[in-house]
Write a structure and sequence with these properties.
The chain has about 525 residues and is of the alpha+beta class. The protein has eight helices and 30 strands. The chain has helices spanning about 25-40, 60-75, 100-105, 150-155, 190-200, 200-215, 215-220, 240-260, and strands at about 15-20, 25, 40-50, 85, 90-95, 110-115, 130-135, 160-165, 175-180, 225, 265-270, 285, 295-305, 305-315, 320-325, 340, 350-355, 360-365, 370-380, 380-390, 395-405, 405-415, 425-430, 440, 460, 465-470, 480-490, 495-505, 515-520, 525-530. α1 runs parallel beside α5 and α1 packs parallel to α6. The longest helix has 21 residues, at about 240-260. The relative contact order is 0.11.
Length: about 525
């Protein structure tokens, strides 16, 4: 789902899809095309059945046996590779033989999509206005591997990539969507489902952008395809497959043995001057944790010359977070921690800010499928619900700021329950916080790299430049590092940022992991594994 239903009044595209002779699509591709129809980006889909098949790769016995084992052991309803036989229905316009080029050309299509299992023939790019579109799995050395997501799991890569490539007649292919997400360890099947369900969102996002921007601007803002020089990794032989399988099982059991030893996040704070662009964490003190609890997502507000830290107080026994407040001290631990907001569902990331002489809070309420605004009626522990800023959407870690006479809101979304929550950053804007309607930015998602995507605190301004802290989750440790991104273009139609600095353990951070950072004039706060 794409939060914020503003796909209205957009252009409707005529879409063709090339399938194999079995006339089938994988489950994630069916969802992708249906999503385009549902959002008004396509009326109906024309299906072209191609008799020519992709060359079959003979599977070594143990490699074949491994996939049989996975298909049995990890069988679930979220399997993105499940096949659907296409028939005439409400969203399919026609089934046409694709071996006759004139039959394809006669449809006057805007785009043609080549299914994962269909034979890829670049000549079809000349039969549609905006070329031939294809999802290609893998990035860097895993790009376009025939063994989709296999080597990422076997080589214990923390991330798995996916791309939406557009082939335009004789022009250089353009990569219009590049995503890196967290690898699901130990299971190739589940890892493929995760990145495939993520990929099912690509087409609707980019057709929405193409409709808003127009052809020239759309293709100019996306980079030409630069595939890696090295060849895709090959299928393992029987001996190598046995070794990989045993090593994968060993890693899994080692993970289960050490699972109970996981460290917990807690709050660190300092009253010393802290420069975001020249970080020094030596003066930070930590807040001690009670058993079965962790503290995360700290934000700081000043009241009567005192600094108060609002944070997620998570109880491992109840499996739910509440919003609490404490007043840190340089000489002793806080005397008390107060719960300021609790709901039947999980709360986290208490984005607190001062505006018009009042205190406001936007806690993360993604499990309730909305974004809520609260007003403080008695500081620091009495907060009153004001309104839903966004409804019927699961926006995670909503982060707002006021810039150029507009309110802007960042947040990440989860397109499917099997997907990561860390690698699709959405941007919204409105003229008025209390009465305005939030609009989606046409470039959404504006960030798709798990290394610098999910918000890690408030947007800050320094030396006339805007900076956005983001979580770097390109690691098997969630909340491993923080990336500081400079926002250098921010308008209603364009967004551009670039990473300028990273807070990384063992490099410039004395912690095992660092998750968020915020400050006011007197205090800087982080949450970290110390």
């Amino acid at each position: 789902m794409i939060p914020g239903k503003n796909f209205l009044m957009l252009r409707t595209f005529s879409i063709g899809v090339i399938v194999d002779k079995r006339c089938s699509l994988q489950a994630w591709e069916v969802a992708m095309l249906q999503d385009c129809v549902k959002k008004g980006l396509a009326k109906k889909i024309t299906v072209f059945v191609q008799k020519q098949r992709n060359p079959l790769q003979k599977k070594n016995f143990l490699f074949w046996l491994f996939h049989r084992f996975e298909n049995s052991w990890f069988a679930n309803d979220a399997d993105a590779a499940n096949k659907t036989i296409l028939r005439m229905n409400g969203w399919i316009n026609a089934l046409i033989e694709a071996d006759d080029p004139l039959a394809v050309a006669d449809q006057h299509l805007d785009i043609i999509y080549t299914a994962t299992d269909a034979y890829f023939d670049e000549q079809f790019s000349q039969y549609s206005t905006y070329g031939l579109w294809k999802v290609v799995f893998g990035e860097k050395k895993y790009f376009a591997s025939n063994l989709r997501t296999f080597w990422e799991v076997m080589q214990h890569s923390p991330v798995t990539g996916s791309n939406l490539i557009v082939y335009r007649n004789e022009a250089t292919p353009v990569n219009v969507y590049s995503c890196s997400t967290a690898t699901v360890p130990y299971s190739v099947k589940n890892n493929f489902s995760s990145i495939a369900w993520k990929s099912s969102s690509f087409l609707a996002y980019r057709l929405n952008e193409l409709s808003e921007a127009g052809e020239e601007a759309f293709f100019n803002r996306h980079e030409q395809l630069q595939p890696p020089d090295q060849k895709p990794l090959k299928q393992p032989g029987n001996f190598q497959m046995l070794f990989l399988f045993v090593r994968n099982i060993f890693r899994y059991f080692l993970y289960k043995l050490n699972e109970h030893k996981k460290k917990r996040f807690t709050i660190g704070f300092t009253t010393e001057n802290f420069d975001f662009l020249q970080p020094d964490f030596t003066s930070f003190k930590k807040v001690e944790l009670p058993p079965h609890t962790f503290y995360a997502d700290p934000f700081v507000l000043e009241n009567n010359h005192r600094s108060f830290v609002f944070f997620e107080n998570y109880n491992e026994q109840t499996g739910k977070g509440v919003i609490s407040v404490l007043e840190p001290s340089n000489t002793h631990q806080p005397a008390s921690i107060k719960t300021v907001l609790e709901r039947p569902y999980h709360l986290s990331y208490p984005f607190v800010f001062e505006w018009n002489g009042n205190y406001w809070m936007i806690p993360e309420t993604a499990s309730a499928k909305n974004v809520q605004l609260y007003h403080c009626v008695s500081f620091p522990d009495q907060w009153e619900f004001v309104k839903e800023l966004l409804s019927d959407c699961s926006l995670i870690d909503a982060t707002v700021f006021y810039y150029q006479n507009k309110w802007w809101m960042f947040g990440v979304t989860q397109h499917h329950p099997a997907c990561s929550t860390n690698d699709q950053l959405l941007l919204y804007f409105t003229d008025d916080l209390l009465t305005g309607k939030w609009q989606q930015h046409p470039q959404n998602p504006v960030a798709t790299d798990i290394a610098n995507c999910r918000p890690a605190g408030k947007v800050f301004e320094q030396n006339g430049k805007l900076y956005r802290p983001a979580q770097n989750n390109a690691s098997f440790q969630y909340g491993y590092a923080i990336c500081i991104n400079e926002i250098y273009v921010l308008t209603e139609t364009m967004y551009c940022e670039r990473p300028v600095l990273e807070y990384q353990p063992a490099v410039n951070v004395p912690y095992k992991a660092i998750h968020t950072i915020n400050q006011n004039e007197k205090m800087t706060v982080v949450d970290a594994i110390v």
